[in-house]
Specification:
There is one protein chain. With 352 residues, the protein is an alpha/beta fold. The protein folds into two domains: 2-212 and 307-351, Alpha-Beta Barrel (TIM Barrel), CATH 3.20.20.30; 225-299, no CATH class. It has 13 helices and twelve strands. Strands 1-2-3-4-7-8-9-12 form an eight-stranded parallel beta barrel, surrounded by five helices. Strands 5-6 form a two-stranded antiparallel sheet. It has a two-stranded parallel ribbon with strand order 10-11. The longest helix is centred in the last third of the chain and has 25 residues, at 225-249.
Length: 352
């Protein structure tokens, strides 16, 4: 099993080097310029300051840059950290909505992903900009500007069936979350449909899943302050995503959100309309906003977390591995991330 950690703040390089020493194998660097530090600046620093951890976009937002620009960026980082770079991308939820724009359509996303993958494989690709197609490829390959000799795996982020199937069809892997991306059975079925389209096997496919693993201390309540502070941000961020889709597309909330849905919808709509979006996303995966703490209930915690004794949590991790999960991803909140990587290493990584 591999273990990934998400990083978003440029002056916390010690967090990254500590995570590397503690056994984390992958570093996922965020891409949301209005909320976090810059993606490629952070990747460059990480490439220079680490030795073993693999470094990737976690996840890149296509609407923020052209496909050849993303491909060139990761291929340049691969020059600094040969063979330690991967690229992952999604349609862009928070990163685009903070700009007042919607995520990329799946059709455009597929074209974007195929362009990035083709360039990173050294191919000549058909790139369309403003509906004007043009044949492009990396030039001056022997001059050392980039490194595509060492493969750069491409993963797609997918939380719905179509995006997950697309990952199976065109990418080297999928990154998703449970329960937001559905049950593991659902995810596997969707991926395998895509793999069948491209004539590939699941054996060489990289499934990376964000699962919240919480080891309770003896006698600790399921909704203790520690659990709420450490795992609440993941819960509220998922609520925010569901709210976006409900307001934009009319989507019904999934079952795991329903216990608090009506109350949260009323709460969100009571915010000033001109600031509603920014107020909701401001705490994105960083902390639980004071006015949202009441929505992190014991029922919601059970719906979102694998939680229990050390033995119970470890058995769930082993079951995920047996069923084909290659990597467990962690997105720890800003003010508690250092302690949480130590706890995770002690309770999970070192026990496997």
């Amino acid at each position: 099993m591999e273990f990934g950690i998400i990083w978003s703040k440029i002056d916390e390089m010690d967090f990254v080097t500590d995570a590397e020493k503690l056994g984390f194998t992958h570093l996922w660097v965020t891409d949301s310029g209005l909320l976090r530090s810059d993606l490629f600046v952070m990747m460059t620093v990480a490439a220079l300051k680490t030795t073993t951890v693999k470094i990737g976009t976690g996840v890149a937002v296509p609407g923020l840059r052209l496909a050849p620009v993303l491909a060139a960026g990761v291929a340049t980082i691969n020059r600094l950290a040969p063979g330690r770079v991967f690229v992952a991308m999604g349609t862009g939820n928070t990163g685009m909505r903070m700009l007042g724009r919607k995520p990329m359509t799946l059709k455009s996303f597929e074209a974007y992903a195929r362009t990035v993958k083709g360039l990173l494989e050294g191919k000549e690709v058909n790139f369309s900009f403003k509906d004007e197609p043009h044949s492009i490829k990396f030039m001056l390959g022997d001059k050392g500007y980039r490194n595509i000799a060492d493969p750069i795996p491409m993963l797609l982020a997918g939380y719905g069936p179509k995006a997950q199937e697309l990952a199976g069809e065109v990418a080297d892997g999928l990154t998703t979350a449970i329960p937001r991306g559905g049950s593991l059975d659902t995810v596997l079925n969707n991926v395998k449909k895509g793999l069948a389209k491209s004539g590939r096997s699941f054996d060489n496919f990289h499934l990376s899943v964000r699962v919240n693993l919480a080891v309770l201390e003896p006698g600790e309540a399921i909704d203790s302050d520690r659990i709420v502070n450490e795992f609440g941000p993941a819960i509220t961020t998922a609520i925010h995503s569901c709210m976006d889709r409900h307001l934009e597309y009319g989507d019904d909330p999934p079952d795991y959100i329903k216990p608090i849905w009506k109350e949260y919808l009323a709460h969100h709509m009571s915010r000033p309309a001109e600031h509603r979006q920014k107020m909701m996303h401001e705490s994105h995966n960083a902390y639980v906003a004071a006015d949202e703490r009441r929505f992190v209930t014991p029922e919601m915690i059970r719906n979102f977390l694998v939680i229990g004794s050390p033995a119970e949590v470890l058995e769930q991790v082993r079951e995920l591995e047996r069923r084909g999960v290659r990597q467990l991803m962690c997105n720890f909140p800003l003010e508690r991330n250092r302690q949480m990587i130590r706890d995770y290493s002690k309770n999970i990584i070192q026990k496997l």
